[in-house]
Amino acid sequence: MEVHQLRYALAVADEGSFTAAAQALHVTQSGVSAQVALLERELDTRLFDRTPKGTRVAPSAVPVLDQVRRALAELDRVRTTADEINGLVSGTVAVGTVAGLSWPAFLDGIQSVHDDHPGLELSLREGRSFELQADVVAGRLDVALVSWPDQPLAGLSSWVALDERVVAVVGPRHPWTARAQVSAAELLHVPVICTSEGTGMRLAYSTLMRAEGLAAPVSWDVTLPTTARALAARGLGVAVVTSSSADAPSDLHQVRIASAHATSRLGLVWRADPPPSAAARATLATLRAHLEQPQ
Question: 162-265 has which fold?
Fold first, then answer.
């Protein structure tokens, strides 16, 4: 079997189709199909179920593809080790970040990684905190900037860049503009605006309300915190968001939620095992250096 055949098969598993895998690999779909077919013939194992509805990993092939992922990771570390000996940082690093984040310190860090390590193939993908963490656990991302209320997913190491609070944000004409704080129970009597399931903000809100023994209703389910704030500014509800020293200046009124559970964290996560590659470690070090700077 050839290494590229293993990479093709793993791409099909990760992307969900031969066409998407070919696009990700910048090769033809027919080439991917042919090479995966050769690999299946050599292994005497069907790796994928091909149906009119799409392609999915054959249940019996899951342990085979898990081993393929581990084998390719070890092969990549051979190159990393050689580069370390030669004092080079090369290879690929896939970085994830929560959608809509415009934190200058993080973006400056990404630029520094790009400029300081020209031999590094760096990629960036936005998403929801929970999904990004799952991608790091699965090895689809090397490092991600995400938020979590208590602990990140099992199997991840983490570094906290900011301690955040869960707050209520209202427009200039809302009655709560005269309030310094509200109870969690009061959120049950207003239309709540929050980001969608899987985001760090939504998880922080749900965790807070669950800890207080309350439901966590949402009237306006949005994708980005900027949308939540924009709706609150127009008096359409109360935006429940996380807030920190990294927030951009705003004319909206921020109200403290009186609960010991109204907390969240924003930070970097990476796999604990296997340990990160030299390229990923260099990326982490650069990002931390930028995120540690006073806000």
Answer: D-Maltodextrin-Binding Protein; domain 2 (3.40.190)
